[in-house]
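Suppose a colleague, Dr. K., hands you the sequence of a protein chain of 279 amino acids and asks what its three-dimensional shape might be. Before reaching for any lab equipment, you can write down a predicted structure in C-alpha cell form. Begin with the sequence itself:
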Amino acid sequence: MGYRKIRLGMMLLFLSFPLTQLSGQDMDPYLDGGDLSFKDRIAIRTNVVDWVLTSPNIAFDYDIVSTPYDKRSVGFGLKYNWNTTHTFVPSRVYNLLDARFDYRFYWRQQPYDNRDNFYGDWEREWINSSKGFDKLLARANCFRSVEKPKPHISLFVGPYASVSSFSIKLSAADDALGRQGIAFGAGLTGGIALPLYGYENGSALDLEFGGSVGWHFASYNLYAVDIENNEYSKEGHRNRFVYFPLVTDARVSLVYRFRSISKQHTEIDYDLIDRRYVA
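The predicted structure, expressed as C-alpha cells, is then:
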C-alpha cells in the first residue's frame, strides 16, 4: 500500500509541475526556427496511461538531425513494476519490466497553395496521373498537404522494437494460471504531438497522443497459486508467436523539451521540392 502511495504521489507531482513558471499560450509555431543545439534535440517523456495502470515509466528521445526542415529521432523507453512485498503470495500479479527502442519520422501538414500554388499543383498532378496502388502511395506521400492544415500539430510514425520480462496473473480464481517469462516485439508506432505549455526560459511541456501495433514472441512458464504452502507452483512451459498485429501500447504522454515541438521542423526545403519535381 505504501509503495502505491509513493507512485501516486510521484504522478501527481509530475502533473502539477507545469502549473508553475508558465509564459502563456501565445506560441507561434513558425517562430524561432533554425538549427537545434544539442540540448534542444533532447526530449524526456512519460506516459500517463501507464501511470494509471500502476507502471512507472520514462523515455528519452534524441533528434538525429538538427535542421529546421526535418525532424527524425531515436528513442529509448523503460517502464517498471516489479516485486512488491507481500506477507502472502497474491492471487493477482502484475509485474512488468519493459524496454523499448523506436525511430520516429515527424512531419507537418502544409497548405495546398504553398509557394504560389506550385507545391499543390505538383502533388495534384502526381495523384491524378497515378493509378491503382501507385495512386494510394501518391496520396500517402502527399498527406502533409491539405486544404486546412493545422501547423501547430506535428505527426510522427516509425518502427519500434521491445523486450520485456513479465509475470502476470489477472484472475484470482483457484484454477487460473499465471504467466511468467520474456517477450520480444516489433512493429510500428505513431501519433501526434502538440504544444501545451511554454516556459520563460524557452523550454516547454508538450502533449503527445499515440499508440503502437506489432508482432510478439513470448516464452513463459505457467504457474498457479499454492495457498496451503504460500507459494507458486509451476504448471508447464509455452512458447507463443502472435501472427497478427496487436495493440501494444496506448499513449497520452507529457513531453519536456528544451525547445517546444512547435518551434521545430517548421521550414520548407524548396530546393528538395524542386529536385523531386524535376525528377
